[in-house]
Amino acid sequence: MKTITRTRIYLPMAGMILTVALALPAAAQTEVPFQGTFQGDDAVSLPTITQSITGVGTLVGQFSSITVLTIGPSGGTGTGHWIAANGDSIDTTVVGSGEHVPMPSCQVVGAQPGDTYNKVTQIHTITGGTGRFAGVQGSFTLTKYHNVVLRNGTNGTCVSYSGFVTPPGAAH
Question: In sequence order, which residues have a C-beta less than 8 Å from that of residue 116 and are 6 or more positions away?
């Protein structure tokens, strides 16, 4: 009788423990939206483009970012550094490509009638972070409209980004 009673208690308990143990890694992978908009400019010294931007986004709030890309025949590669207002940061690797487009719907810094534009698509993969972003994982797509006309050594841009990240502590 004791063996049957113990089996009836231990088996459901073992099932609950396994369910919780298997659910924790899944919960830790909870993704949240990571998106925002910003403006800035690109300093061009081919084959290098240095993208300097400021904006507002989910998780980071007000931020600034510097991305340095090396441009080649099939697009660009480089690294990005995103800094929240309090100094916490996210680092990314970047792969991008571009195409000529008509005037974008967003307001490009320094744009004038008759200017021409490139639509640049960048895939940012998060490689690390500091402060509240230590341990963050994920990727996002940045879409940038780059004014091809160079003014004062820079090209104006308007940008949005969207993706998903797994923030540290998402399981808590």
Answer: 100, 147, 148, 149
Burial-class residue 91 by CB neighbours within 10 Å (0-12, 13-18, 19+): middle
Angle at 153 between CA 151 and CA 154, to 5 degrees: 70
Q: Name the phi and psi angles at 42, rounded to 5.
A: -115, 125
- Global confidence as pTM: 0.76
Which of 90, 80, 161, 165 minimizes the C-alpha distance to 132? Answer: 90
Enter the DSSP assignment of 133: G
Return the residue matching tokens 């490139």: 118
The values of phi and psi at residue 167, to 5°, are -75, 155
3-state SS class at 118 = strand
Provide the 10 A C-beta neighbour count for residue 122: 25
User: How confident is the prediction for the chain on average, in pLDDT?
Assistant: 82
Q: What single-letter amino acid sits at 87?
A: G
Q: What is the pLDDT of residue 35?
A: 94
- The candidate with the shortest Cα–Cα distance to 170, out of 50, 25, 66, is 25
Q: For 17-50, what is each residue's pLDDT tens digit?
A: 434 444 444 444 688 999 999 888 888 888 999 9
CA 113, CA 118: separation in Å to the nearest integer? 15
- Which residue is listed with tokens 């797994």? 166
Kindly report the CA angle at 103 between 149 and 44, in degrees rounded to 5?
30
